[in-house]
Amino acid sequence: MCCFPPVTLSQMSPTEPVLAEQICRILQESLHSQLTHSRKLKELASIHRSTPSKPFFAAFVESIGSIFDFPRRTVNAERTVRFAASFASLRLESKEEESPFLEEFLRFLLLGAQAAHRPARFRSCQIISEIIMRLPDDAEVSDEVWDEVIEGMKERAGDKIPAIRAFAIRALSRFAFGGDDTDISDLFLQLLPLEQNAEVRKAIVLSLPSSNSTIEAIIDSTLDVNESVRKAAYCVVASKFPLQSLSIKHRTTLLKRGLKDRSTVVKKECLEMLKDSWLTKYCAGNIINLLKYLDVETYESVGESVLNALLNDGAIKVQESQSIRQHIVSENQTEGENTEPRIEVMDAETALYWRVVCKHLQAEAQAKGSDAATTTGTEAAVYASEASDKNDLLERVLPASISDYVSLVNAHLSAGQNHHFTTRQLLLLGSQLDFSDTSTRKSAASFLQSLLSIPPPTLSDQSHLATSSDDIITSSNDIVNLATSAGDGFSLGGDRAWARAVAELARRVHSSKGEFEEVVLEAVEARARDVRERVGGFSEWMHCLSLIGFLLENLEGIWGLRGKGSEMLQSLLLPAAKQAHIDIQRSAMRQLGLYGSLEKKPNKDLIKQLQISFINGSAPVKAMACKSLLDLLTWFGPNELNKSIGLVNSDESKTCFNEINVGDLDGNEGFEVLDLLYWGFERDERELGFNEGEEEEEEEEEEEEEEDCVVSVLGEGFAKLLLLSENYASISDELYAVILSKLVKVYFDEETGDLQRLKQCLSMFFEHYPVVSRCHKRCISSAFVPVMRSMWPAMFGNTTGSNAYISKMRKRAVIAARFMLQMIQTPLFSDQNEESLDNDDFEFDEEGLAIRISAEIASCTEKTNASKAYVSALCKILVMLGFRVSEQKAIKCMRGMINLILPSVSHDKDAVKEIAKLGMTLKSLDQHKNEELAEDQINEIFATLGIEPNFQLETNIIPPTPMPPSAKAAPSRAKSRRKPTHSSSSSSDNDDVDDDVASVSHVVVTPGLASRRSERASKAAALSKMAQSSAVMKDLDEDEDEEESGVIDEEDEDEEDFE
Prior knowledge:
Elements: H1 16-30, H2 37-49, H3 53-63, H4 75-88, H5 101-113, H6 118-134, H7 143-156, H8 162-172, H9 183-191, H10 198-207, H11 212-220, H12 227-240, H13 248-259, H14 264-282, H15 287-292, H16 300-313, E1 328-329, E2 342-343, H17 348-374, H18 377-397, H19 402-414, H20 420-429, H21 438-452, H22 469-472, H23 476-484, H24 496-509, H25 515-532, H26 538-553, H27 565-577, H28 582-598, H29 604-616, H30 619-636, H31 638-644, H32 673-682, H33 702-707, H34 710-723, H35 733-747, H36 756-772, H37 774-791, H38 803-825, H39 830-836, H40 846-859, H41 865-878, H42 888-904, H43 909-925, H44 935-945, H45 973-978, H46 984-1001, H47 1007-1013, H48 1019-1030, H49 1040-1058
Antiparallel strand pairs: 1-2
Helix pairs in contact: 1-2, 1-3, 4-6, 5-6, 5-7, 6-8, 7-8, 8-10, 10-12, 12-14, 13-14, 13-16, 16-17, 17-18, 17-20, 19-20, 20-24, 21-24, 25-26, 26-28, 27-28, 28-29, 28-30, 29-30, 30-31, 30-34, 34-35, 34-36, 35-37, 36-37, 37-38, 37-40, 38-41, 40-41, 40-42, 42-43, 43-46
């Protein structure tokens, strides 16, 4: 079939204008309301049936032609588009054969989609998308036409107009399938991460089919910056993906992001997906079945968020027939007989459900009671009635008595490791129970004592030599005890969540002041008897230490021990740190850190023991001792820790760390804490614990291995110390700079590549450190040169190697330099930024770094390849720095430094040109070019920056020596460049020389070079000095007199231009 182009009324037959007028009248009437479309479509279809196809198509196209020139999306325009699309997709039942109108109209629209006119492309794609979305599934259209439509819309999907791209993608969505033919879905996945327009991203997300290849892209869209895209992602998941087709990770990720989204619209859409699709459609309204799809034992927080969201929305109603008492079946008992009830074990989902429901009912009852107390009259009565109803419902749900509750928990406690999660939920449920009665509190207290007395697994004293888990756990009961023994959440006595649950229940039962501490102390004393009498083994030590940690974690201060703290330290904690077993030592290090943080002043014996273990302990013990020392350092400060061990004369203004001689530890009072911790960074890789993991079991997790790495612990601790540096004024800025340089080196070190936690921590630290305080900028500037020196190969005592190794190390050093430059150039927070504008603070900003780099370049006198590469790298960083007009002293100082830099970079022509441009910039920023910078001012600048120069900086400004006129007229610059030479190669060389000389001549007016110009005795001497400073005028073939006069004239012209 041929495609009919649009025609005009003059080209129509006599009957066609009448037909066009009829169509125009119908279109005009359809603009009034969309309710008339159905009737008008029938009228237009009637005209179509009574008219030949060709004239009707021409008249129809002519009637809607004006819409292709109208770009605005008004109501009338949109109604016209929808009416035209509805008619094109309308089936003409009276025709014996399928009408060719649809195919011809699609071909006509495809021509418009290729037009250069933007409104024509826009309307064509819009109408095509409307037609495709309205067509029934059994519409008869030739494959050739569909292929043309698909190819045309694929091309328009890359249009520069966002609206056109959106309609093209909408049109293609009907052809996107999740089967073998994935061309269109692959195109969508390719366009989605590159698309910048939110509406187009939304269209792509809504068009993605349901398949394994698209689910990841849809879930990633839940993190989109635009809320409409995030909402569309949840809409697609709810409509296209059955709950069973999603993995547990996908389900929990969607709920975690959606229920905590900052947008109310997205939260509502996620809740609708959860409630209407997942709960009602796929789980038949059974909340327990929904929780089973979420694996609440692994994703407890997600399950709790789901329950809270559904309870707040009213989607879950607690029926009167539902209760925890259904799991407690009382046996038939005679009068006076007291038998234990029969317990039906709960699953994890049911336990979590009742724990959250009871907490929700209690919160609602308290809220309604508060409202009743703050209001009066009928409103107060209503609130009081609602609070009473909630309390009655909570009472019916909870166990009938405390004894039933204890029996319920004990039954699940005895059920084994598989019911550990359920048991913990039941322990948390105890916070909703009433323990005011003396008899019930006594029963609960007895139950708590049994929890605290559960020992950890029975281990052999040689268990640290075991090679498998079967060698450690000796019985099935040990597995139960491993998870149920109340501990500190660290050692083998139990996990942290279990310890928190036990502590919460204990606080609820023993609510009187000091009662909780007294009960736990009694449990500790009971376990410590065998340890003190030296008859207890590994199990008794670990149980005792876990209970001590449990107590210390729940204390507000050491005074809560009622004078028994010192005895606990001397008789239990310090002896435990000297035990032979690694696990006992490691647990003791943690308890010593907790104990020290609860004291008002640091304890000498405690600090000394932590230092000894940090030096002599194994990798896990070192790491834990390091954590404890860092915690105490940040809590008390370095001076208090040093004074506690007798170092009262510690130097608070020292600029470097002292050497540590571990051989003098026995006869020494101790080492300064910062010196000792920094010494950990300097130790050999094998001592730091990098290689100790190789002798561990192969199945040991990488995260656990990293926790035993001293470098990782020190990196995190020092990062915290630097971020809070304003709280520790006793530490000098020089020490902070040394620590920062070490962290930068560790961050870019290959050997720490496997320490992902450390990398993540330092990444966040470097992102926030430069923007917090102006003092941090000075620290970064001070650490720049030490970082470059420590990372540059074959210099400053660093290792060397093959050319490939040296090249790799140089690239890494340059990356670190640019990274620090980026930190310097990162703006401060607004309040800090405004404060810095009114101060003379070049040492905090880029000017101070520029002077430091210039001094480093000037002091580098070696001429080795490594030195040349080092200087070139520093120059590339130097020219990237900016200068403020307000910092005139720093600008004048830098103008003098330029003269010292040029001889050092003479080997690099590009660096010479860049430094020359920098000199021009500095001269333009100098507001007082004829004023001198006094020597004391120069010394003050260097002292402020901590620079000890080994060079003489000249800043005297002396006018250039006037040159007598030459006997031969100097050729113009253009003429001298066009002057023929001996060969083409020599001509190009001379051109380069002229360019370099012109660049260097810009720097002649700087102070140092101007002072040296006055010492020139002749033209030959002037040319010699210039050739020495620029190192670019070599092997000149021209006549000496012509060359001298030409060069000098060019210099004078450039100086006049600058003036």
